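Example 299, ligand phosphoric acid mono(formamide)ester.
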Amino acid sequence: MHSLVSISDLSKNDILDILNLARKFKEGKISNTLSKKVIASCFFEASTRTRLSFDSAIQRLGGSVIGFADSNNTSLANKGESLSDTLKIIGAYADALIIRHPQDGAARLASEVCNIPIINAGDGANQHPTQTLLDLFAIMDTQDKLDGINLGIMGDLKHGRTVHSLIEAAKLFNMSLFFISPKELRMGHDQLFSLKQSSIHYSFHIYAEEIIDKLDCLYMTRVQKERFVDIDGVNFDSYCINLNTLEKARTNLKILHPLPRREELPSVIDDTPYAHYFKQAADGLFVRMALLEILFATV
Ligand code: CP
């Protein structure tokens, strides 16, 4: 693996190797693989978890970080420099680039103009592959397997990049997918066609109550209002869960969420045995350590 631009850059075995190594880091494994390495962390869009867990992972592996959390003070924002030139320059100063950008395809562009490994930390509504790795870690951690699980995916399936990466990975593990969203926020035809081609079972639902008794994991997402062109007329009621939603839940059900959450996942759920989202985010540190370790072992 040279770069991680899309989750489809990884094979099933690559993913399992990363998750197994993440488990070792969680259990206390120490490594200095990034000693003398400088990693650029460039966030052209807001982040808390992805940026800080990558910064922490880099430093724990002995590396150092350059970059920015707010691109408003760059020459791109103030002097009209192109994104392509900006990325080329960053690529000359660092040994790898972690990039988040509001534009679909920005990480792919970085991989084309830079000669260093690129990690996509989220590009527009397209992909968020490292989030998927930690989502898979959470599923493995709570269900002891990835193959064949029943996964509910709820919320903004159209604009949610974490959903788009996750369903790509779900194909590798033959998961059954239950999509819960208003019709307006279902994912695109191309993605559904791709699931069909891979013989993945999927079904559509408006409310989680319709299928909660079938699910091993319920993956919730925030409505991505910042990516909406037309928000009028969408019924948001079916996005939110409450304690009643979980009345018929299986005992092994775990609720996952990439966070940040809004009204769809009220804090009253935090005290139930189903809540796993804060552990999911915390384990992102170990997953990102594992990714960096493996990436630098192969470059
Ligand atoms: N899940 C996620 O990407 O969170 P941040 O936007 O805080 O990085």
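Summary: The chain has a mean pLDDT of 95.
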